[in-house]
Each structure stands twice: as structure tokens, then as C-alpha cells.
């Protein structure tokens, strides 16, 4: 009864009484509507259902990118959905660059002030830089790598955003405190980037290129 390939990407729910199968967000809606009947009309509201389906697909098809696992030949991962992969990369780029644009304002005095769009350009440049490298070294792993790279960037951005809130609650702090926090997060990001590269079977040169791009831009910004 179950389409096993589809079930890899969307959780399957089997109704043994009616011999029917639902997948993905519709399975979740069926379970929630059974537990909370008052919500059933919301689940039938087409705009909500459409948005929930897209959000479910974004997470489901990118779950091995968001939380990578050690390679296991016996396990079956989600199919590569280019639309959802590009959507994840775009979302991570927008959120990361937005957070960094705000955070960089706390570093004035250590680095020159810039317009709001500098971090967006830097993040986009890294996508192009690393994408060109992967296109040469391992073209078959290009989208998997870029998805992982932007997940690392998003994780670092969210960590800086939380630290920004904590520092703001403490009071006015000198730029050196924000710079030290930034370096700490960047170090953790490098370790996670290297770990994900190992899981993808990529050489250390990919992480070296990732660091080299940032150092080159830092030199360019300071000079």
C-alpha cells in the first residue's frame, strides 16, 4: 500500500480501516485533527494547507543537510529536490546576512562602518567562491555542500543573534567583547564546517578555501 520512495521524503500514515495512505503534512493534519477536532477547519483552509506543505517540504527534503548523519550504506536519505535545496540556501543567506548586518554595527571602531548590504554581498560572494571550487573538485556534491555550508553560516548567525540579545540585556559593552564573541563563534563554525566536509568525503582544501575567502575579505575591508 505504501509508496516507499515517497515515504522516504514524506511520512506515510496508513488507515487500516479504509486502506488509504496519506503522506507528509496531510498525515500530520489527520493526526492533529483526530486529537483536536476544532482545528480541522484550519487544516482544510487552502492557503494554510499550501504554506504548511511548503514548510514541511523545505524541512523534510533538507533534513540531512540541517542535521547530517554519519554515512550509512543501509540508510535511505531524502531525494534531492533542487527547488527545496535552493530555497533552503536562499533562506539561510537572507537570515544570516541580516543578522550579521546588525551585529557588525557593534564592531565599529575595529572595522570600518558599512552599508546594510555589505554582509549580503559577502555571503553571496562566498556561495560563488565555494561553488566554483566544488564545481571543479566534486560537481556531484555541489548542492549538498552549499546546503551544508549555508546551514553552518545560519547556525553561526543565530548564535551571534542570541549573544547580541544577551549582551544588550547586560548593558553597553565595548566592541572588543563583540569581536571576541564573533571569533569564538567563527572557530566553532570552522570545526563544524570541517566535520561536515568529512561526512561528505571532501578534502581539507574546501575548509581552507572557506577560511581563505573570509581572511581575504577582512584584509580588503581593513585596508
UniProtKB/TrEMBL annotation:
<keyword id="KW-0812">Transmembrane</keyword>
<keyword id="KW-0472">Membrane</keyword>
<feature type="transmembrane region" description="Helical">
    <location>
        <begin position="176"/>
        <end position="192"/>
    </location>
</feature>
<feature type="transmembrane region" description="Helical">
    <location>
        <begin position="199"/>
        <end position="222"/>
    </location>
</feature>
<feature type="transmembrane region" description="Helical">
    <location>
        <begin position="23"/>
        <end position="43"/>
    </location>
</feature>
<protein>
    <recommendedName>
        <fullName>DUF393 domain-containing protein</fullName>
    </recommendedName>
</protein>
<feature type="transmembrane region" description="Helical">
    <location>
        <begin position="117"/>
        <end position="138"/>
    </location>
</feature>
<feature type="transmembrane region" description="Helical">
    <location>
        <begin position="86"/>
        <end position="105"/>
    </location>
</feature>
<keyword id="KW-1133">Transmembrane helix</keyword>
